[in-house]
Amino acid sequence: SSHQLSSLPLQILLYVNGIYYIFYFLATLAMIVYKSEVFSYPDDFLAPDLALLLIMAVLEALRLYLGVKGNLTEEEAPLGLSLALTVGSVVLSVYFLVWQTYVLRADVLVNAVLLFSYGLESVLKVVAIAAFVS
């Protein structure tokens, strides 16, 4: 008798993170536009901030796809790769939280929620990978 090893809490969190990331992307893009209009945003920093946000969106789509695929097919390789890509997403989120040109309170809020969800998701991925391997 075979039993299901995929994680329902992980699947739900991946779905919720996909929805939240759309909000995160649009909010961060809107804040970058706002900051470029209201503050003296150096032109040398505007393009890299936008480029990093777009890179993060591509990384996030790939990370979520691999996470869902790995969880549903109960394969540790895609789930492990998704976990590795989470590190890149965390670094980019920390960039938008700490190192971008101007950091608003709204930046702190949306990035704190994103980082918390990455942490929770990573724990669930490790648990799922351990279940698949055993």
Automatic annotation (TrEMBL):
Q: Mind telling me which GO cellular component terms the entry cites?
A: ciliary transition zone; membrane
Q: What's an example Gene Ontology biological process for this entry? A: non-motile cilium assembly
Name of the protein this chain belongs to: TMM80 protein
* Keyword Membrane among UniProt keywords: yes
Q: Which gene encodes it?
A: Tmem80
What's its membrane topology? Multi-pass membrane protein
User: Where does this protein reside within or beyond the cell?
Assistant: Cell projection, Cilium; Membrane
- Lineage top rank: taxon: Eukaryota
Per the record's keyword annotation, is Transmembrane helix included, yes or no?
Answer: yes
Keywords noted in UniProt: Cell projection, Membrane, Transmembrane, Transmembrane helix
- Residues crossing the lipid bilayer are 12-34, 46-66, 78-102, 108-133
